[in-house]
Amino acid sequence: MKWSDGESYIEIDTPLAFNFAQCLVFLGRSEQENLHRINDGYLYKLLKFDEEFVLCKIGCKPNSIHIDFPLTSPSKDTREKIAVYLWEWFDLHRNLSPFYEMAQKDTILQPLAQKYDGLRMIGMPDLFEALVWAVIGQQINLTFAYTLKRRFVEHFGERQTFERETYWLFPTYEKIAAISVDTLRQLQFTARKSEYIIGIAKLMAGGELTKESLLQKEDYLHTKRTLMAIRGIGAWTADYVMMKSLHCPTAFPIADVGLHNALKIQLGQERKPTIEEITQIATHWKGWQAYATFYLWRSLYD
DNA sequence: CACCAGGGACTAC
DNA sequence: GTAGTCCATGGT
């Protein structure tokens, strides 16, 4: 990763096939999102490292991402962590050339790759955030899922205010490990989801589940099995988290309803494709299932 | 009012 | 292993 440190700002070199505006479209998909704000072409995100809050104002230049710090100037050590966070958030380490070459020969992906050229996998560097968001999203419509996430963040997350706007941090697993099922039930989480989320928080608080250990697993299936052994994490959630937080390119939530709807639309069919049909279609996507899924999700927001 | 929603656990066979 | 059932609640 290449980045330059200007002390009061940082700049991260962007790879080929990167389009900041495309990424902002995806990040702006919900009005209820409270973990970042988009205003006038800039992306605002609150982060915290070692008790140090940092508000980032993120914009783009021709070949780089430029980050200013409107609230306080972070230390050098923190500036490096911010660069790493952004690197992960926008999946900047990945060379997309093979994906676009593959997409060029795929009738479904070809128009999407052209239309959303430069869109990167928008990740979730925080493993706990990815897990909770996935559990929240199980079997409910996205609008309600965002409502639940907003309540969750605003009840248990820390905040900073800048120019009359409030910026939120996702709650920590330490905090959630200590709450009761009843507390989440009051926010209209189901009892089951409350148990899953608190259970996951306790595993992480106890050091039994870490992003580092998951990343150390040998292969896709081993990692997926490890995740699926946790109560509340099935095949869909495991793939979702591997895709968004572990940057696994072969993660493929094949049972995803959004994926089914996107394929139905792209294929111009009256019905959604079956799992067997999707398996067949996806044989072309080998090695890039996560990106294929992500671009299909993106197509739902036009 | 019916059906759906970015599923998963649990049970029975 | 897999098919059936329940979970629970808002959106459309």
SSE arrangement:
Blueprint: E1 3-5, E2 9-13, H1 20-27, E3 37-39, E4 42-49, E5 52-61, E6 64-68, H2 76-89, H3 97-104, H4 109-115, H5 127-136, H6 142-156, E7 159-162, E8 165-168, H7 173-177, H8 181-185, H9 191-205, H10 211-215, H11 220-228, H12 235-244, H13 257-267, H14 275-281, H15 289-298
Antiparallel strand pairs: 1-2, 2-6, 3-4, 4-5, 5-6, 7-8
This protein binds a DNA duplex (13 and 12 nucleotides) through residues 134-135, 137-145, 147, 188, 190-193, 196, 231-237, 240, 253, 255-261, 297, 300.
Per DSSP, the total helix count is: 15
| Global structural class | alpha+beta
Low-confidence stretches: none
Strand content: 5-15%
The major pleated sheet works out as: 6 strands, antiparallel
Level of helix content?
Answer: 40-55%
Classified in CATH, the superfamily of the domain at 127-244 is Hypothetical protein, domain 2
Q: What's the helix-strand series? A: EEHEEEEHHHHHEEHHHHHHHHH
Write up what this structure looks like:
The chain has helices spanning 20-27, 76-89, 97-104, 109-115, 127-136, 142-156, 173-177, 181-185, 191-205, 211-215, 220-228, 235-244, 257-267, 275-281, 289-298, and strands at 3-5, 9-13, 37-39, 42-49, 52-61, 64-68, 159-162, 165-168. Among the domains are: 3-93, 2-Layer Sandwich (TATA-Binding Protein); 127-244, Hypothetical protein, domain 2 (Endonuclease III, domain 1, Orthogonal Bundle). It has a six-stranded antiparallel β-sheet, with helices on one face. A two-stranded antiparallel sheet has the order 7-8. The radius of gyration is 19 Å and the shape is globular. It is of the alpha+beta class. The two termini are 32 Å apart. A hairpin with a 2-residue loop joins strand 4 (42-49) and strand 5 (52-61). It binds a DNA duplex (13 and 12 nucleotides) through residues 134-135, 137-145, 147, 188, 190-193, 196, 231-237, 240, 253, 255-261, 297, 300.
